Amino acid sequence: IRLKFLNDTEEVAVARPEDTVGILKSKYFPGQESQMKLIYRGQLLQDQARTLRSLRITDNCVIHCHRSRGATAATPALPEPGPAGPTAPGLPLGGGTLMVPTVMVVLALGWYFRINYRQLFTAPATVSLIGVTVLVTFLAFGVY
């Protein structure tokens, strides 16, 4: 079997058809078994107990080898289970999704008070309100 690496180097591996993927990894990558990913014909060889014969790996076949950064990269992290709340399916509600509407409501209240209570707003406060409105408008259009 030929082991081909990402830097286009190859190594010849001697293995029997009865050998498993786990045996192949431990024989040629001792101590790095959890970091090594073996790919044959575009499929990741994840089952360590499968034999080379069952995978139809024969003489002079090429197995591509990739070393991941760490052992944790081999197993994707699952999200922590949160409290099951009465949310509608398909509507993920979080702090980020409600941020733009909340800022828009605060800006609308600012403009309401600016129009109805003009005597409380100085010129710098009005200029600041205009600047914040323009900034939030650009950010809102940029996000959506």
Automatic annotation (TrEMBL):
<dbReference type="GO" id="GO:0016020">
    <property type="term" value="C:membrane"/>
</dbReference>
<dbReference type="Pfam" id="PF00240">
    <property type="entry name" value="ubiquitin"/>
</dbReference>
<dbReference type="InterPro" id="IPR029071">
    <property type="entry name" value="Ubiquitin-like_domsf"/>
</dbReference>
<feature type="domain" description="Ubiquitin-like">
    <location>
        <begin position="1"/>
        <end position="64"/>
    </location>
</feature>
<dbReference type="InterPro" id="IPR040352">
    <property type="entry name" value="TMUB1/2"/>
</dbReference>
<keyword id="KW-0472">Membrane</keyword>
<feature type="transmembrane region" description="Helical">
    <location>
        <begin position="93"/>
        <end position="113"/>
    </location>
</feature>
<protein>
    <submittedName>
        <fullName>TMUB2 protein</fullName>
    </submittedName>
</protein>
<dbReference type="GO" id="GO:0036503">
    <property type="term" value="P:ERAD pathway"/>
</dbReference>
<dbReference type="InterPro" id="IPR000626">
    <property type="entry name" value="Ubiquitin-like_dom"/>
</dbReference>
<keyword id="KW-1133">Transmembrane helix</keyword>
<keyword id="KW-0812">Transmembrane</keyword>
<feature type="transmembrane region" description="Helical">
    <location>
        <begin position="120"/>
        <end position="143"/>
    </location>
</feature>
